[in-house]
Amino acid sequence: MGDGALVEMTPAEIRADLEAGTEAAAKRSKSPVLTDAELDHLSEIFCSNSRFTGVDIGDEVVLSFDGCGSQDLGTRVNDLQYYEQYLCADSLELYHHDYSYKPAKAVMPFEQVVMRQAQFVTTAPLGYGAMPDLGLYTVPDGPVPNWSQLLPLGRIDESRAAQEEAVELAVADIVFVTDEMVEAGIEFIDLDTAGAAGDADFLAALRAIERIRARHPDLGIQIGMAGEFVLGMHGELEYDGVRLAGLWPLDQARLAAKAGVTIFGPAINTNTGKSIAWNVARTLTIAKPCCEASTVPVHLNGGMGVGGVPMHVCPAGDATCRASRAAVEILRLDGL
Amino acid sequence: MGAGDVYGQAVSHGVASGMGGIRTAGDLVARMQITRGMRLPEAKEYVAGKLGVSTLDLSDPTVMFDVRKEFGLGGILESGEVTDVDDPIGIEAKFNIAAVLDVPVSCVERFRTKAGRRGRLGI
Prior knowledge:
The complex is a heterodimer of chains A (about 325) and B (about 120). Chain A has about 325 residues and is an alpha/beta fold. Chain A has eleven helices and seven strands. Chain A has a single domain (about 10-45, about 60-330), classed as TIM Barrel (Alpha-Beta Barrel). Helices cover about 45% and strands about 10% of the residues of chain A. In chain A, the strands form two sheets. In chain A, strands 1-2-3-4-7 form a five-stranded parallel beta sheet. A two-stranded antiparallel sheet of chain A has the order 5-6. Chain B has about 120 residues and is mainly alpha-helical. Chain B has helices at about 5-15, 25-35, 40-50, 60-70, 90-100, 105-115. In chain B, α2 (about 25-35) crosses α3 (about 40-50). Chain B is globular and about 55 Å long. Chain B starts with 6 loop residues before the first helix and ends in a 7-residue tail after the last helix. Classes of the chains: A alpha/beta (about 325), B mainly alpha (about 120). At the A-B interface, α3, α5, β4 and α11 of A face α1, α2, α5 and α6 of B.
């Protein structure tokens, strides 16, 4: 199940959930439903009693990690080393425990030193990641009026002005951190969980990416989304003439590529009350148009609570591997 | 990928669908996606072409063991059983990766700059 609970289902029940999942997604996102052949393939994956499953030999994809290590054992450099050496990660990402650009900015000299040390002892591409996290710029944590307090009072104009002000602050912080990290030798920057605070959050990410691309032409830029649908907390913000509120992954990817990313990560949320088969069918239906049309590599978010993976901090391996295989084989992903 | 414990996420995805990082050629293919924005088939073709192997070989640890040694691309350390004292590791391997793949590696460039400074004494 989407909450991680183990359930027993008949093949007919699994098939019905797959069909219901793709139809639910198509209705909301206006994407085409999965084909009969694709649903047959998913049935085969989910009706197997095996504990584990995987893609065919030769169909393996790149695995990028938004934040390597739990920071519980050894040092953060050790985290990166064991992700490279033991978990065979294809790329590595150093992160500050308070995974947002605003707090990371305050400790940049220390982060630069750790990054520099890590670059000496690792071989895989190594970058730095954090969230735009627009909410941190509002009172009481920041200088901007809090739109979550203003909106229920009907103070729409003030709420919008506050979000626009926060965008500028966030962009400045993201660009600052990137510049500092480029000095320390990063190979890519990751703007993770973009859009978490809605359309203004996504706009901050896109504007920051645009500036970063202009300043660092060879730098890898990765963006991972917060959810399948950009919430319209502001409602009128646009990037490149496109209204951001309400965008689904296909259009999110187009704008991200236009801004200058080299990897786009869509995030499709898991419904905890539905089966993993239902969630995977829904995920693939929403993500498929984006994967087909994208001009940059697509790394589907496959962490807890997204990409068909259970919303549990210890997701069952049998569920994760099925979601993983299904996504790679149906979407022809570039990575996860 | 995303949040979650290491076994439930990194191990499960890694075994189910991952290329294998520096154990194979996953890091090299990732590098082409990151620096050049290449989609997977193009990135695999590019790396395979530079290394003189097939795209199927890129995920094969037996083949890539020898290829990585030959080109000095680093690899799993495994207490000296896989990578020995003559093999480049860490940033040493990245110098070779930059040359073999013909891509800029920023920390390598930074290393060159810093190591090339002579200091006040002109040594």
